Amino acid sequence: MKLFAASVRLLRILLVVIRYRIDDLLLDLPMPWWLRPARFLLPWRWIPRRKARLSRGARLRLALEGLGPIFIKFGQLLSTRRDLLPPDIADELAILQDRVPPFSSDIATALIERQLGAPIDTLFARFDRKPLASASVAQVHAARLRTGEEVVVKVIRPGLKPIIDQDVAWLYLLAKFAERASAEARRLRPVEVVDDYAKTIYDELDLLREAANSSQLKRNFEKSQLLYVPQVYWDYCRPQVLVMERIYGVPVTDLKALAEQQTDMKVLAERGVEIFFTQVFRDSFFHADMHPGNIFVSTRQPWSPQYIAIDCGIVGSLTPEDQDYLARNLMAFFRRDYRKVAQLHIDSGWVPAETKVNEFEAAIRTVCEPIFEKPLKDISFGQLLVRLFQVARRFNMEVQPQLVLLQKTLLNIEGLGRQLYPDLDLWATGQPYLERWMRERLSPKRLLKDVQAQVEQIPHLAGMTRELLEQMSNPHRDNPPGPWQRERRDEWPLRLAGAALLAGGVAQAAVAAPLLAVEAWPAGLMLVTGLYLIVHR
User: Are strands 307-309 and 227-228 parallel, antiparallel or unpaired?
Assistant: First the structure.
């Protein structure tokens, strides 16, 4: 980080905090007694100040807008959790979803022409200079192609990268300092979390990546009644410009409009949960920026409502191992099988291997039992996660960076679903899908597919084995020995290795399936390799 630029950015953050009196909001929060004197150590608080003319929500929103995209993203996430925020703050932060102040249309037009290499009038039959929407990273203009299709043109805000560079550099600095200063911070792995967030925010600056994500998501939900994704017009896409189909729908937070068209709100909320589970477990490819500004509802069939998703700049995925552990944890968790939850955490490496299962099980039960006394529809997953993380500190549980986006998306889904249908039972909606997915994982068709994937690896493994054998049998292939060394070739190490492989192959064949079965190919490979090493001259 360049020292001067970093210092200027830090001063800018401090000035915004002072201007909008964000310190008042922070100091009003509950805090330990030893932090309370901090309010007297801030020099600007010694100066008498007039009463604030703006509400606390408006001050917080304006401060986040002034600080740039990373802070705006944080405000967007907060805006979806009305169950955790006072209504006045939640209403103001909701403005950040798609009503961030736009930048100049002249600048947007010049950037589009430079990226696409032609004048606006040549590219489009119509181009609306007034932005249709404006967000933290880009703004959108309506247009019509020469071929007649109605589209939207998304263009990246100018000058974002230097600001993001400085903010990310400060986050890295704070994360590294926290790791060195606190064992508790090391458990949370802040540097890895910042690294994942930095990758995510930088990916958003490349609209070609967003276009590719949109195409993949559209393909995953082709002909689906759950979710529609607009078409991308690739001929007009560049790193800083994206052109895609214009959609017409009701913003998901416009409850009045949804009620007027007689939308089935229960079905709408439940389908949001089903979309989440489908993306995470079926596709391992999920839209990870599902704040309300990116979600619309189709007006075609209010009795069977369909979501419309835009802005696929942030997507997440899980490995098969993470999918498996997550699904089994959720199933055990809602069945109140706390011992299995504890064992799964240990098996997956989320807590240290030396953790005592009985103690961890008891700690999880202490947190969960009071919560499960409520109806499931009244359980807040956000509050539950906070409680579980507090308990996990005792057992040195580490934050899993690959699950951060998933947790954020789940919080968005829960917050959105509760706005649409306050009686939403997230678990009753997701449980049938999750159970079906786990059954399909163990179906003969899926097992056969896994075996086929292993068989496909045989040529590769055979090639590696052949190369290894050639190197072992001729260790001086690339560096031939001198004439005085050629008569002495010690072959006993190769024969010893062959005997070990032969013994291992016999042992594995004894407990495996019949030797001619596909599953027994590793034993057969060990037998053949061992024999070759023993008899080879």
Answer: parallel
For the CA atoms of 289, 290, 295, 298, the dihedral, rounded to the nearest 10 degrees, stands at 120
With the C-alpha atoms ordered 34, 36, 38, 41, is the resulting torsion angle positive or negative? negative
For residue 183 the two structure tokens come to 């064992």
* Nearest residue to 292 (alpha-carbon basis) of 69, 95, 62, 151: 95
* Residue 369: partners with Cβ closer than 8 Å, 6 or more residues away: 336
pLDDT of the residue at 95: 79
* Residue 341: closest CA among 364, 323, 319: 364
Cα 491 from Cα 485, distance rounded (Å)? 14
- For residue 229, is pLDDT > 70? yes
Q: Residue range 110-123: average pLDDT?
A: 93
Instruction: Name the 3-class secondary structure at 137.
Output: coil
138 labelled binding-site residue: yes
Tally the C-alpha atoms within 13 A of residue 83's C-alpha that lie toward its C-beta.
19
Helix, strand and coil percent figures for the chain, each rounded to 5: 65, 10, 30
Token pair 């596709």 is at which residue? 283
139 annotated as belonging to a binding site for a ligand:
yes
Handedness of CA 203, 278, 193, 416 (dihedral sign): positive
Does the annotation count 423 as an active-site position?
no
- pLDDT tens, position by position, 314-335: 888 888 877 887 888 878 877 7
- Terminus-to-terminus CA distance in the chain, angstroms? 62
Q: Pick the residue with more confidence: 506 or 169?
A: 169
pLDDT in tens, 175-201: 787 677 666 566 656 777 677 777 778
Q: Distance of CA 108 to CAs 138, 154, 158, 244, Å?
A: 10, 9, 8, 17
pLDDT at res. 486: 45
Higher pLDDT, 464 or 130: 130
What is the pTM for the complete model shown? Answer: 0.68
Q: Which of 289, 337, 378, 478 is catalytic?
A: 289
Residue 84, annotated ligand binder? no
pLDDT at residue 146 is higher than 90: yes
| CA pair distance 344, 247, nearest whole angstrom | 43
